[in-house]
Write a structure and sequence with these properties.
Helix content: 25-40%
Number of strands: 7
CATH class of the domain at 4-146: Alpha Beta
Order of helices and strands: EHEEEHEHEEHHH
Strand content: 15-25%
CATH architecture of the domain at 4-146: 3-Layer(aba) Sandwich
CATH topology of the domain at 4-146: Rossmann fold
Structural class: alpha/beta
Distance between the termini: 93 Å
Length: about 210
Amino acid sequence: MREITMFSGSAHPELAAAICRHLEVPLAPSRVTRFANDCLEVQLLANCRERDVFVVQPLVPPVQENLVELLLMLDAARGASAARITVVMPHFAYARSDKKNAPRISIGARLVADLLRTAGADRVLTMTLHSPQVHGFFSMPVDHLHALHELAVHFRGRVDGAPRSVRPWTCPTAWSSRRTWATPRRRPASRGCSACRSRPRPRSGSPTTRS
């Protein structure tokens, strides 16, 4: 089994540190230099030769800067003769750009997937893509994870300690469908409100009196 080398970008170093603590591996150092013309230079300060290299960099704001930094780190790892390079990207910001819904627009998810492959990525680990079709934009293996269990544990703990009057499932119509959750249920226009229904209506052909 090859040795693991873990690097972290500037997007979320705390996440990379937590992963390293869980795996009981050290977090390899790296250096990001910004030049006077606002260009970036990335240097990996650990040996990568014939190792499994993991780069932790979620695409969170500022997305473009974190993306360029990730591409530079991948290129540096490939140039350092890494055996396999895995991108740990819990949040893929361009996943929403997955279709051409207007003329003369680009499909950003496919473009970024091609950039990652060209920069040297051999595998991508991401979570909860916007739609399953984004998985097909990558020309490399993708581990598409989800956090349903963690979210269920989190919200179960919050709801169990809340008063029953504020629990969402006490209202039978609130969760009946996605439509009723997004917009309140309206009465049909023909029924009207209670005051209109109780008001006597004139018969057809009878004169009406206005005061």
